[in-house]
Write a sequence for this structure.
């Protein structure tokens, strides 16, 4: 299994999407100021009643990113007790997770194939490292980040596809 590829997917791509998420929240702040809406109220918005509110979607996005890196490398993730209630606090959490991901190197993922990743909600069972990455970690990360994007979008925040995709590393021919 290519450790560089795993590193790219787990660290670089998740970090980029977290940076994009942080930028969306910056646009949401401008929108809230312009419309005289409390940002803390916006953080409690949902797409539908049985889904998490925006702030919990952001917490879950952060958790997915840090847990993927930690579980695939055999390291311990930082603890976040999900006590954020303000934009400043949730932005700090995003920044903390990005900083945590930046501590990783490709060689940290050299044993992904041998990892047996257990989940707290599935005692006595595990997923092999690559199955964990492709069947749970990445889909779950993108589910929560996309739902956060959608909540912002439905509130009228001016974010679009280029905001979602973020910076592209085009090279000259």
């Amino acid at each position: 299994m290519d450790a560089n590829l795993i590193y790219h997917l787990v660290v670089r791509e998740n970090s980029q999407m977290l940076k994009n998420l942080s930028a969306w929240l910056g646009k949401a702040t401008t929108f809230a100021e312009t419309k005289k809406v409390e940002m803390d109220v916006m953080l409690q918005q949902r797409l539908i009643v049985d889904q998490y509110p925006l702030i919990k979607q952001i917490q879950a996005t952060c958790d997915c990113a840090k847990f993927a890196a930690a579980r695939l490398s055999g390291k311990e993730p930082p603890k976040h007790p999900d006590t954020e209630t303000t934009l400043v606090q949730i932005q700090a959490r995003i920044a903390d997770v990005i900083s945590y991901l930046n501590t990783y190197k490709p060689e940290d993922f050299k044993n992904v194939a041998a990892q047996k990743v257990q989940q707290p909600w599935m005692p006595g069972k595990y997923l092999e490292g690559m199955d964990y990455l492709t069947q749970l970690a990445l889909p779950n990360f993108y589910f929560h980040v996309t739902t956060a994007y959608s909540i912002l979008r439905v509130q009228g925040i001016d974010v679009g596809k280029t905001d979602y995709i973020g910076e592209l590393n085009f090279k000259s021919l």
Observations:
- The chain has one domain: 3-158.
